[in-house]
Amino acid sequence: MTEIRAIVTDIEGTTSSISFVRDVLFPYARKRLPAFVETHGNQPEVQHWLHETAREAGLVEASRQDIIELLLQWIDQDRKSTALKALQGMIWKDGYAAGDYRAHMYPEVAARLRDWRADGLRLYVYSSGSVPAQQLFFRYSEAGDLSPLFAGYFDTETGPKREAESYRRIAEAIGEQPAHILFLSDIVEELDAAQSAGVHTGWLIREPQALPDSPRHPVFSDFNAITPST
Ligand SMILES: CSCCC(=O)C(=O)COP(=O)(O)O
Ligand SMILES: [Mg+2]
């Protein structure tokens, strides 16, 4: 492997469990979204994302109630909408601040991120969650405040995670050739896209998931199994 200088990691299913996102964060946002939109719907940033929601759905004239219904459907469908993710992030902020939950981290993740930083690697996040949501996630993690370990965050405003161009943009933004970057994810289509852009890949397949017969990316059962060559 060429020298790896930067690691870009996904969150859900990679650093953290899918069930924390689906069973804790999503229901928290779902329950509070109608009141949040009613209370904060006139704030410019919230207004912007409500407008983007309607635009994404192709709705020309949508009432606030229509948009709320749509967003609730999208939460149930786990739609990776940039607008939904931005609004969810704003709602989650209160839950973290109140101590209602802390972000799940697989047990080895924090120590391994620290090792990589100590080895001089730069760490980044690329997730469908909005950048503010990612920052909260690592700041209020079960393993303490991990946010100082990261040099930057990318969300779907950079582009969809299943498109190669998004990984080229990330490489450019962090000032590295794709060949010096390792992208970690649990989703093979994201890894395919990263590989098409020339980025190295690591496929996190955690127990009890079965290993594929002939995986098209290097497979790791956890972060301890990853040794980026530097
Ligand atoms: C940033 S925390 C919330 C994660 C989230 O909403 C999500 O959709 C996770 O997607 P990922 O790209 O990290 O698999
Ligand atoms: Mg994932």
TrEMBL record:
<comment type="similarity">
    <text>Belongs to the HAD-like hydrolase superfamily. MasA/MtnC family.</text>
</comment>
<dbReference type="InterPro" id="IPR023214">
    <property type="entry name" value="HAD_sf"/>
</dbReference>
<protein>
    <recommendedName>
        <fullName>Enolase-phosphatase E1</fullName>
        <ecNumber>3.1.3.77</ecNumber>
    </recommendedName>
</protein>
<keyword id="KW-0460">Magnesium</keyword>
<dbReference type="GO" id="GO:0000287">
    <property type="term" value="F:magnesium ion binding"/>
</dbReference>
<dbReference type="GO" id="GO:0019509">
    <property type="term" value="P:L-methionine salvage from methylthioadenosine"/>
</dbReference>
<dbReference type="Pfam" id="PF00702">
    <property type="entry name" value="Hydrolase"/>
</dbReference>
<comment type="subunit">
    <text>Monomer.</text>
</comment>
<dbReference type="GO" id="GO:0043715">
    <property type="term" value="F:2,3-diketo-5-methylthiopentyl-1-phosphate enolase activity"/>
</dbReference>
<dbReference type="InterPro" id="IPR006439">
    <property type="entry name" value="HAD-SF_hydro_IA"/>
</dbReference>
<keyword id="KW-0486">Methionine biosynthesis</keyword>
<dbReference type="GO" id="GO:0043716">
    <property type="term" value="F:2-hydroxy-3-keto-5-methylthiopentenyl-1-phosphate phosphatase activity"/>
</dbReference>
<keyword id="KW-0028">Amino-acid biosynthesis</keyword>
<dbReference type="GO" id="GO:0043874">
    <property type="term" value="F:acireductone synthase activity"/>
</dbReference>
<comment type="function">
    <text>Bifunctional enzyme that catalyzes the enolization of 2,3-diketo-5-methylthiopentyl-1-phosphate (DK-MTP-1-P) into the intermediate 2-hydroxy-3-keto-5-methylthiopentenyl-1-phosphate (HK-MTPenyl-1-P), which is then dephosphorylated to form the acireductone 1,2-dihydroxy-3-keto-5-methylthiopentene (DHK-MTPene).</text>
</comment>
<comment type="pathway">
    <text>Amino-acid biosynthesis; L-methionine biosynthesis via salvage pathway; L-methionine from S-methyl-5-thio-alpha-D-ribose 1-phosphate: step 4/6.</text>
</comment>
<dbReference type="InterPro" id="IPR036412">
    <property type="entry name" value="HAD-like_sf"/>
</dbReference>
<comment type="pathway">
    <text>Amino-acid biosynthesis; L-methionine biosynthesis via salvage pathway; L-methionine from S-methyl-5-thio-alpha-D-ribose 1-phosphate: step 3/6.</text>
</comment>
<dbReference type="InterPro" id="IPR023943">
    <property type="entry name" value="Enolase-ppase_E1"/>
</dbReference>
<keyword id="KW-0378">Hydrolase</keyword>
<keyword id="KW-0479">Metal-binding</keyword>
